[in-house]
Amino acid sequence: MKEYKLRYGTNPHQSPARIFCRDGELPVKILNGKPGYINFLDALNSWQLVSE
Fold first, then answer.
1. How many CA atoms lie within 13 A of 21 on its CB side?
2. Is residue 11 very low, low, confident or very high in pLDDT (cuts 50, 70, 90)?
């Protein structure tokens, strides 16, 4: 199971969060730094939109 460490949860005042991927890789690549939870959701939703 792949684990991605995030800078924080939904809001900046929350503690760091993690996302787990059970099978394979996620369709996004982190280029610089650690994204927040909302940044990751934006990237995943954008990927679904352009891959249709």
1. 12
2. confident
